[in-house]
Write a structure and sequence with these properties.
The protein is mainly α. Helices cover about 60% and strands about 0% of the residues. A two-stranded antiparallel sheet has the order 1-2. The longest helix is centred in the last third of the chain and has 24 residues.
Length: about 180
């Protein structure tokens, strides 16, 4: 009986791990050989995706509910905000995601959607030769860099700080410089 329980536990955990591996940004892919405006912008999005993946990986309910002060945001609200930023980034360069963010999504669904939004945006940018094609009457692409892209990176740092404060440290095997996991 104990053996069957152990096997069931392993199968469930291996299945969850395999599913988690399917999400983009577990590790950064090798960069393109050529530096173009599109490849650099895509790598910025990829770096954001990698940071978000690990800042949000393994968050517990206590982490999601934690906030540093009464006037601060919880980790859950920060994740919701990053999801909104990922929608804004994607919809600014694509017609694919012109819908509004569903604020009733569960954390895991928000996390998954954010990662896939960032991957789609990265793929679009990587194939671009001239980022001015994404300029609009409201704002040039430059505003995407200093606006939602930088804002989302900023909020990933907040998630790391909040998770540490709630007792769930950031994985020390993550190498943000290389975009890989240390052995």
């Amino acid at each position: 009986m104990k053996f069957k329980i152990l096997i069931s536990f392993l199968i469930i955990n291996l299945g969850a791990m395999a599913q988690e591996q399917e999400l983009p940004y577990y590790e950064l892919e090798e960069p393109t050989e050529n530096y173009t405006a599109g490849s650099v912008a895509a790598r910025m999005i990829d770096a954001l995706g990698f940071r978000y993946y690990w800042a949000s990986e393994g968050l517990r309910d206590v982490d999601l509910d934690y906030k540093a002060s009464e006037s601060g945001r919880t980790s859950a609200k920060t994740i919701e905000h990053i999801l909104g930023l990922s929608h804004f980034i994607l919809s600014s360069i694509s017609e694919e995601s012109k819908k509004t963010v569903d604020k009733k999504m569960l954390f895991e669904d928000q996390r998954k959607q954010t990662l896939f939004n960032l991957k789609k945006a990265s793929n679009i940018l990587r194939s671009s030769k001239d980022l001015s094609e994404f300029d609009t009457a409201r704002h040039p692409f430059w505003n995407m860099i200093n606006g939602p892209i930088s804002d989302a990176i900023w909020h990933c740092g907040q998630l790391v700080t909040l998770r540490r404060a709630s007792g769930n440290s950031f994985n020390s095997n993550i190498n943000l410089f290389s975009g890989k996991i240390r052995d």
